[in-house]
Write a structure and sequence with these properties.
With 349 residues, the protein is mainly alpha-helical. It has 15 helices and two strands. α5 packs across α9, α5 packs antiparallel against α12 and α14 packs antiparallel against α15.
């Protein structure tokens, strides 16, 4: 009886194991994936939608709005850049008369014309100088001020608010204020110089002084952003590192070089990239302060693209679109190479 009962137990266990194995192979394998007998596995996108449907539902309106506001103009601009569209041949309505569009596709002729024109390379050279100068000065001043405000001093909160103030004021208000300051006849700056016996300087009427003026205004607007970013990065560096370095006999420069700069590398790399893109396309400062003048001395790529589309007659929509696409490609290439350079230095970004 004991032998028979033991054999029955073994048989029952084997039957259970066989049934379990059949159930496993009939629906899923040992990894939980669906077997081909019952159908294919759902795709990765379908699994993500079913798992994170709430997050996708929250993001969908924003993605839709961005697609409409940015996506459509981008696609439209790409299309227009391959045509000969201008003010005279686009679709328009004059009174009760509707005139259909008559522009045609010209392929890449607009890009060839832009890249073979010396005007583009002149504007590109000045745009690069303008961008590098503004970003370098803003970063240096922002880092210096952040180091000073990171220390304990009386009235530190007041200093922080005063230095962040240019960032809070609308850009066009700041630019108009600086335009009054730089006025050659009635400007405050020239009146101060006249009080010291110095002749008035044509800040906005001389090409060299105009370039220095627009760089000054843009640096004044960009320092608060650098200051806030650098100050946040400095406060994230452990104070124990400075205490240990000071105990080891490191001076202020050595602590700054070997602790502060490496500690700010991730923050500084990001803000430099963002500031470079902003400055490269900084339309308000150039347009409102000098309108690209005197002549075309301070005209950058984006202001020249605006001039083609809204100032010259007939307005060259296709040429302006081609300039816009080239600007986008230049910034995209810069971002790609900048990211690769950071990766070579060990930065994960």
């Amino acid at each position: 009886m004991a032998v028979e009962s033991g054999q029955s137990v073994v048989k029952a266990a084997d039957a259970t194991r066989i049934r379990g194995r059949g159930h496993l192979t009939g629906n899923t394998d040992r990894t939980g994936k669906k077997n081909h007998r019952t159908g294919k596995n759902p795709g990765r996108l379908r699994r993500a939608l079913s798992t994170h449907w709430y997050a996708w539902a929250m993001v969908a309106p924003v993605v839709t709005v961005i697609g409409v506001i940015i996506g459509y103009p981008l696609v439209r601009g790409l299309y227009l850049s391959t045509t000969d569209a201008n003010e005279a041949n686009v679709e328009r309505t004059i009174g009760v008369n509707h005139i259909p569009a008559t522009y045609e596709s010209v392929g890449l002729d607009n890009y060839t014309a832009v890249l073979s024109d010396g005007v583009f390379w002149d504007r590109l050279t000045w745009t690069v100088i303008w961008t590098v100068s503004c970003v370098a000065l803003s970063f240096a001043l922002g880092l210096a001020l952040a180091n000073m405000l990171n220390r304990k001093l009386a009235g530190r909160s007041i200093y922080r608010m005063a230095l962040i103030l240019p960032w809070a004021v609308p850009a066009f208000v700041s630019v108009f204020t600086w335009r009054l300051i730089f006025n050659e006849k009635n400007g405050i700056l020239n009146k101060l110089l006249a009080g010291g016996g110095i002749d008035a300087i044509p800040w906005l009427n001389d090409p060299t002084w105009a370039k220095l003026s627009v760089i000054t205004v843009n640096v004044w607007l960009g320092v608060p952003f650098m200051l806030v970013a650098m100050l946040g990065g400095l406060q994230s560096i452990p104070s124990e590192l400075y205490e240990a370095a000071e105990m080891d006999g490191a001076n202020a420069w050595q602590r700054f070089r070997h602790i502060t700069l490496p500690g700010l590398r991730s923050v500084s790399s990001t803000v430099i990239l963002i500031s470079s893109i902003w400055t490269f396309n900084m339309f308000p400062v150039i347009f409102l302060l000098t309108r690209g003048g005197p002549g075309d001395a301070t005209e950058i790529l984006v202001t020249y693209a605006y001039r083609l589309s809204f100032v010259v007659s007939p307005r060259d929509f296709a040429g302006s679109a081609a300039w816009g696409v080239i600007i986008l490609l230049l910034l995209s290439l810069f971002a790609v190479f900048y990211r690769r350079a950071l990766r070579k230095q060990g930065e994960v970004w």
